[in-house]
Protein 1
Amino acid sequence: MIENAHRWTLELLDPAGGAPESFALGEDRIDWEPAEESARWAAVRSGDYSPQEAWAAPATLRPIGSAQLGEPYASGFEVLLGSNGKPAFSRAFSTQYFKKLAEEHAGLWMRSGRLASGDLFRYLIAAFRQDERLVPAARRSASIRTLPPALTIEEPAAELARHPETESVGPDDAADPPVLVPRAVLRETTEHVLSNPEKESGGFLLGKFRRIPGSRDVATVVTGYVPSRAEGTATRLSFTPECWTAARSAIALRGSGEALVGWVHSHVIDALCAGCSEEKKRDCPLAKGFFSEHDRSVHRIAFPRAYQIALVVNLSGGKTTHSCFGWRDGSIAERGFHTDREPQEEATCPVRE
Amino acid sequence: MGQATALRIFANDVSGQKEAFISDAPHDETVGSLVASLVADLRLPKTDPEGQSISYTLRNERTGELLQSSSQLGEVLSPDDRTTVIPSIMAGSARR
């Protein structure tokens, strides 16, 4: 667990020039785990740490003082991994990390009339040193520890991301952990969701990890898709305890040392847009793929590893497209992936009648 | 199952990212009560984005059973059993 010796506050600035308002961000309000996870995986991607070493190293939070405003204001924070016999490693995060919390507090201002819908607002983050170190409270005699991901990193292989024989799909950010999703897997996901195109469906992505040729970076190579019996409606997909148990059994049955690297689910855009005109449907941003608040909640709870991704299969206008989401700097964002080249049009096929 | 008055239990979250070790879970404590404290210990969310409660179920990894919340720990777990706290959660295109 990460060690935090600071008390953090969020200051909302009034666009109308009124007095700012400060909100204390208690330990139960700030979710530091995605930052910790991101830092530990970045250490693995640096090539200096194995996963076991990265997760064994003590992690500490340190604010980065604002050069413009001076302390206690922060322009971000760092997660420092203790050396533990290895070179020390740090990863910096901007105040963007607090955006969701800022939006929640701005919602309070909206309710009180200080902000109107569409108003732009700014926020500042401040950190105050405390004498006593804050560690997450553990009740009764439970002791909590974070576990390293159960994975091994294999030697480079030719089919990896950024290889000339792969192509990029979606927004390409060089800082994102590289992911290769073979076209055959994309096809399997498409066939699965098209077997029930009126309702959402989904499943799990399995994969392995390999060093990228000529680099110390690590790529996730998706090696299989396990369809889930998660129950869907036109706009919802429920993952029950039985779904998670079945997925775990499927991974064990395959017996090839794969890790759970992500999940897949469909969005039946045609159902969402049933009442819209054809012209409106053509320009509909939903058709290009999105990640709902419920999707984010599932990803945060069940897929918190920095390398884990979510593929969304969009069923819209008789076609299917894939969008990909994953962790970037401790937040969930749309991201790209690599797939192997194929002569036909990528990731698109007609919806079956 | 076991004879001692308290059980040692390990519990993981569904992602396998976090593990709680309980050294003294009473035999007569219910699974539901243990799950409630594990949700707090593991800092798992109690509600979904719409504010609805998220329900969690405890799975005994040794037997593969999903445990009833009214069962007593001494009836369904043995010392040093490994368990997983598994959520029922919803994804989907419905936007808040």
Protein 2
Amino acid sequence: MKKWSLLALTLVSTALMAETCPTPQVEKCQDSENGGAVKERTIVAPKAAIGKVEPIQATEPAKAGCDTCTLSQNNTIHFQVVGQGVAPVNTVSPAQAMALAKRAAIADAYRQLGEKICGVRVEGRDLIRNMMISRSTVRTQIDAMIKNAKILDTKFKDGLCEVEMEVTLNGKEWYARLSR
Amino acid sequence: MVRPALTLTLLLAAAVSADEYYIYYSLTSRDLIAVEESLKISRAMTPLRGAAEPLCSFETDEESFTSFAAKNRMKLAECLLENSASIRSYSLFSSMTSQKKIDILTTPVLPVQVEFNDGLVTIKKIQQTDSNR
């Protein structure tokens, strides 16, 4: 009986040791200085101590998984932008001004969508004269084709028109094309 | 017997008349102000062959597509842009200050079939393949 209890105690202590002591990881690296001799390093990674788990106070709404932020082959993501347009000064009527502001806002929204989906080409030029920058210019260019973009909302306020626009990208169709 | 049948045929033909057009829309805005807009409509000179896919429909009192387009330019433009839009944008920043921003929004030339039926205009996109052009 005494033998069995001793054996049980030994087994329990071994199990506890195995839990607390991490398994050493052996890393092999080639030493280029000593004629390519293989060196072995033993790394013992201590297990992170798990303390009391406290709930994190969320300061912003939790994102609905990373599936919605990055395009993959299996998900669908929505690009939402707000385009802005200004009414010209020399218009015949307020209605015409609003219509023109809306058109400009639509163009701006499409530009933003193109910027997000297809990217921007940036070209910078600095002219240095007498060890000083005399002129610095940055040119950006966007060239994109967008299909099935939908206008969600249109707002007018103080001569400014805001158009909310959305486009949906299906990963099954677009992931391969955009990841090139 | 012949006269009623003929009248019915004529009435049906008048009620559902499908015409074919090519439409193109372009909008240029400079520094967030629309400066130029053009909507070009041309009747197809040869019959367009291909599958017609409904694009959009509007209620109207107009009799012809050109008069409808002239009065509802924005509605038509939104419909065309939703189908497909090409955007080209050029910005210039000099000494960390925005100098110029030009956005050019265009739609590709789109072959459409337009149907007027009982106060409703239906615009259908004709999908032309290389074989039926």
Protein 3
Amino acid sequence: MTEPAEIPASLEGVLKDEILRMYQEVADNPDSEFHFYHGREAAELFEYDAEWLARAPGGAVDSFAGVGNPHLRSRLQPGETVLDLGSGAGLDSIIASWQVGPAGNVIGLDLNPSMCLKAQAHAASTGARLDCRTGSMENIPLPDASVDVVLSNGVINLSFRKRRVLEELYRVLKPGGRMSIADIVSAKQLSQSIVNDPKLWAS
Amino acid sequence: MFRLVEETGFTKVRSAVVPRFRFRKAATQASAEAFGVKAVVMTALKPAGA
């Protein structure tokens, strides 16, 4: 996972539009077929606890589009404040909310305002508390040193500016805070044809 | 990614491959393998004194 040397602003804008479109499609039409596994099939593939999946709202499970299971190593504790970077339909946020309990807080962040509304509705339907903010991972709308744990699942790879994203995560974490992120990495530099193709980058 | 996380200032950076991750379509999976694409779970700490 490397940083492209030069990022045309127009290409980054096109990419963000494609990401919004792609993940809105997963949320709106979870029965469709995508390049990646999603929904319950993916969550089971990544060993999400069966009890969690039974308890979570169907809409959150069906629209799950993660690439791994960040909860396996997150060690969330009651009372902690968690940021779910790229919270999507809310499954990871809801699971985090159950773990931090009523004394904790879960803040979702998503580029798509309608996904935030959907995630909050899913959380509310299970009694989980989720404060979802609309914004970009390159400019996280949170104060310095305000969260204990960052979770993320299949999101950072979508950014052209990964170094900037990691600097933002470092900024919002409290000293001693931690992150548990599942993501896609590449051992080789992606070809320019892939970098310049928003559909391939977004998937 | 691992290097970027360390360069940002995080410590105790650990990563583990997600063994069952794969793309649904065979052609996409083949391309991914050609580029060494894989899913990982990565953990890291912000130092207490930072």
Protein 4
Amino acid sequence: MKLSKKWLKDYYDYSVSDKEFADNMTMTGSKVEGIEIEGAMLSNIVVGQVITVEPHSNSDHLFVCSVNVGGNKNIQIVTGAQNVCAGDFVPVALDNSTIHGGKTIKKGEIRGVESNGMLCSLAELGLTVMDFPYSISDGIFILGEDCVKTPGMDIRESIGLDDTVFEFEITSNRPDCLSVIGLAREASASFGDLLQIDEPVTPSGKGNINNLLEVSISDSGKCYRYIGAVVENVKVEPSPRWLRERLRASGVRPINNIVDITNYVMLEYGQPMHAFDINLVENRKIIVRTAAQGEKIVTLDGIERSLTPDMLVIADSNKPIAIAGVMGGEFSGILENTTTVVFESASFNGANVRSTAKKLGMRTESSSRFEKQLDPNACIKAMNRALELVKVLGAGEIITGLADCYPLPKTCTEIPFNTDWINEFIGINLSYSQQENYLNLLGFSVENGNVIVPTFRQDIEHLADLSEEIARLYGYENIPNRELTGIADGRLTQMQSFEVLVSDTLLSCGYTEVQTYSFYSPKCLDKILLPEDSELRNYVKILNPLGEDTGIMRTTALPSMLEVLAYNFKHKNTAAKLFEIATEYHPVSEEELPDENPKLIIGAYGHENGYLMLKGCIEELFDVLGIINFSFSADNSNISYHPSRCALISVDGDNVGLIGEINPLVSDNYEVNTRFYVAELDMELLFKAKNLLKLYTPMPKFPPVDRDLSLLCDKNTPVQKLKELISEAVGELMESIELFDIYEGKQIPADKKSVAFSLRLRSAQKTLTDEEADALMNNAIKTLSSHGITIRT
Amino acid sequence: MRDQLEKIRNDAIELLKSVGTQAELETARIKFLGKKGELTAVLKQMGRLSPEERPVMGQIANEVRGEIEEVILQATQKLKQAELTERMSSEAIDVTLPGIRPHLGHKHPLSIVLDEVKEIFLGMGFQIATGPEVEWDYYNFEALNIPENHPARDTQDTFYITDKMLLRTQTSPVQIRVMEKQSPPIRIIAPGRVFRSDAVDATHSPLFHQIEGLVVDKGITMGHLKGCLDAFAKRLYGENTKIRLRPHHFPFTEPSCEIDVSCFRCSGAGCPMCKNEGWIEILGGGMVHPKVLKTGGIDPEVYSGFAFGVGLERIVMFRFNIDDLRLFYENDLRFLSQF
């Protein structure tokens, strides 16, 4: 909301600086987002009177003017404009002046003739012909009778380009503040002054409106009030300068006197108005009704709209002429030959206006005001003001009376005044009269222990609402700070602590945390080669996505991780180790919210032994989480992964995730030529499997015996299997078994590999002898031999 | 014989003076003191001596042995010292070579600051609550006093799943869920992802994070809201930080306010970071609307409460001087490894 300082001063004048005024407004709830001084960019431009105009000796289209810019001396200026005559008053940009847009004008020579400045057009002052309708856009602005023609006067003063405009952010609960009067009330209250407004009365005129217009409302739930007034013998012409000026300062384009009056009143009172030619109204009957299913209307913007029965229209006895509160019909404007005008000031159900505007996809200034629920009692004030302006402007002859249909007059809400409650709620201690005073400043009154809420404050329903009014005028900064007291139990839940532990472990292992979007394009599922019938293609779909990339909620975090890996690879980051605890979303039904499952996803590239590195990290994590009974088993069933380089991870026999190298075909889809390694682990299953209760085991009393075992087996025998065979054969005296070498190549048959373990044997009861150790090793050798595995010596 | 012993002593001392290695030393030891060494050879002749001479010679021989052993010991130590010195100097390393770093991972900047915020509120006795990201319209809007066709819905462009299910546009629905489950006293924060249908640019993202706060108890006042957030701001930005409450409007709080903190770069003097205002807006909040308490199953006649919401990205951007929201979700290691 732009507020003209000149306009505000009609109602409330402040004595502090503009900055202090703005700060004060902000701190009492009307936030000032900016202060704009009109014409601030212009400098050194004055009114000049053209004394002579001579053709330029070296040009057939330039003129040399002698211009009086105040004082005794005239200055010479060369201009290319064709519309300047001797005697005209014009804006003159002197030497070293600045015009709109920031361009500096300096004296110089034009084709050998000295020019000491520039005559300005409207555009060079930042204006348009809308601001000065008698001017032209492609020539010099010749000052009219509505300007002060004093040579040497600052042009801004002469033409009224000297207002200060405050830009307010008005919250949606305060439509009353989208008006000059509303803000004047806030301003006066914030300075502790009571605002006095002389409300306009309905002017009398000639004739009787009842002979010209009949108004009825058929749906009083959607239309609370409709007032029509008629003005005859209308002279459609530009508005006077003061009115145009205020519209301009408010960001509204002046059109003609009738339309300008409706806009002026809207800005002043916050009540949208409409004016239309009475010839549009067949049978002179206005009926406010809901539309018939499929009923059509071509709106002002030339688009045909198809309506539904929940939409309200302003109709005559035959057809809709406007969509109530949203936009008028095609011919409902003011035409050049209009002689009789109907002014409309009405009140509609805000929610209904909003839903209609939304369904039709046409938010207008009018609808955005109506949807915030305007005061039906403001309709009459606005109408009276509009008619007053008709009179002031001499825009036409007012017909006596109003066609005012107001089935259920809006009465004031009353709230029992409980000052103690308010003091306790806010944490202050104000007397009854202090509180009452604040309310009075805002237009409330207190009668018989009840607060009477003015109807323009429909946002006030409860003591809590009143407490805000009092607190903001008292000043939030004056409320004393209080500390929270009492017993409180601030701690993480087990799952939250678990997530911290997982995250800290990954960070310690060198993995960097990433954060990826929860949604992606359904094409992401194609990129990871997910089969058509995959469960993961049953996703939560966004009805109104911003684009494909926000199409669906992810059912798997894999594409998110691959995207990040690919992004880093393409940006020449040579290696990456990343993780995220990412939510995956799985639909349940329309009646139930989707399951949201946290997944630990780890990704890496650019490291040697990528698979083993990642696996090692998971083993480390399992160690931290106290997960002992886990296994990795080869799996070729997941299409996103390399079929020979992927393993399922299980804990206590239950699958908790998988790990592997990404299928090269998938990497191709991400346009990278490197190997990606990824592991996915279900956080909830890990949470269940964890065992953080760690108990101390005493150190062994007896020394160990260490033995190495080097063997030769088929190339494709899993090391895990060898370990299991040896463990079984050696039995419980085997404390540990570690792989220390694996070799294929020279001196080894092509289909074989050499694998070497070091074993540590120990008994808890005694020191093992060499003979006992040998016997255990022989058991292992025997078992291995029975599986065709030989011992290398 | 006495002369022989004297000679051995002199020879040995002379020889040992020039010994340069352990091996030479050993050879010398064997030559003089070994089983077949010179001293032994002399001692073998003891039998030929008279009983009177024997103890005298024996004593001299022992003295000689002792002396030689002493000299050998000294030589050994000297040699060891020399060898050690030699080894040390030969083992010199370039101490300026770069270290072999274990390379810890980097926590995401959003998590770094969120963890700090959690820590602060845990310390003030808050628990951390969560709620679903795919949420019912009811919890996201209606229960928060934003009925259908309420203008406040405009400011939050919503992603819908069905006409009743949506991606939450704020963390405020967690307020209702907590109130439904837990009776007062309530003291929670609820950090999480929220979604708005905003196209991606430097200051907009369809996904961002909020941290909701809710306190409900008997006798909670707006003074408590101020006190709590003042303490929060001081812990997050330093003891000299001030807060400023400006009246605002949120449908689910009454009174409502926006909360500014004094600019942590210029301490309120005015700088480019705070756009010369001296204040930076980081929070919204207010007293929980009695209607919202009632919807949450809490009697507003008995209890009152305050609630607030912080935009996480915003405070992280201020903290690390980050000027583009997109960086958080691109996850470029050149960005992440700076934190």
